[in-house]
Design goal:
This protein has one domain: Maf protein (Alpha-Beta Complex), CATH 3.90.950.10. The two termini are 12 Å apart. The longest helix has 15 residues. Helix 3 packs across helix 4. A hairpin with a 5-residue loop joins strand 5 and strand 6. Strands 1, 2, 3, 4, 5, 6 and 7 form a seven-stranded mixed β-sheet that branches. The protein is 32% helix and 25% strand. It is an alpha/beta fold. It catalyses: UTP + H2O = UMP + diphosphate + H(+); dTTP + H2O = dTMP + diphosphate + H(+).
């Protein structure tokens, strides 16, 4: 069965390869990622994964995989870092605190059935100095990333505690993804 990855993220492609799965096609879904009024972070992450999977055209027999990673501080959904100023605000808010990296996955199987899974990873950063934040912003790796950081890069040196899926914080929780791909007949 052909696998379609509904993501333009090279990180998701690399993570998928760790499972021994390679997409036959990659399609970047275009959806509105604005949180709904009163929407909680878990529901938001799951909704986006489902909407991304549905936004990609699926030919007969194809299986679609989509994911979304959302960073939440309490009930607050943190946006991606679109500018250095936003990134500074995000990192300052995360400094010395625990937050949740919610990584949702949706698979639409060849018959059109949708299944979802969600990995909730607790991440705690050490207290960050203004100098550390400025240096991280200058390196450029957190721009465009949920919460303003890439755990697979320099920000990993700030993690004093992590409980859950490391791959989920990067962008695709492998345990949950594998289970969905087995059910869909992509993996044995």
């Amino acid at each position: 069965m052909p696998l379609v990855l509904a993501s333009s993220s090279p990180r998701r492609r690399d993570l998928l390869a760790r499972l021994g799965a390679a997409p036959d096609r990659v399609a970047a879904p275009e959806i509105d990622e604005t949180p709904l009024k009163g929407e909680l972070p878990r529901a938001y992450a799951l909704r986006l994964a489902v909407e991304k999977a549905r936004a990609v055209a699926r030919a007969d027999g194809e299986v679609v995989l989509a994911g979304d990673t959302t960073i939440a501080l309490g009930r607050r959904i943190l946006p991606p870092a679109t500018t250095e100023e936003v990134q500074c605000d995000l990192l300052s808010a995360l400094s010395g605190r625990r937050h949740h990296a919610l990584s949702a996955v949706c698979v639409i199987d060849a018959a059109g059935s949708e299944r979802t899974r969600l990995a909730d990873t607790i991440v705690a950063f050490k207290p960050l100095t203004a100098r550390e934040i400025d240096a991280y912003i200058a390196c450029g790796e957190g721009i465009g990333k949920a919460g303003g950081y890439a755990i697979q890069g320099r920000a990993e040196g700030w993690v004093r505690f992590l409980a859950g899926s490391h791959s989920g914080v990067i962008g695709l929780p492998l345990f949950e993804t594998r289970a969905l791909l087995v059910t869909a007949g992509i993996l044995a």
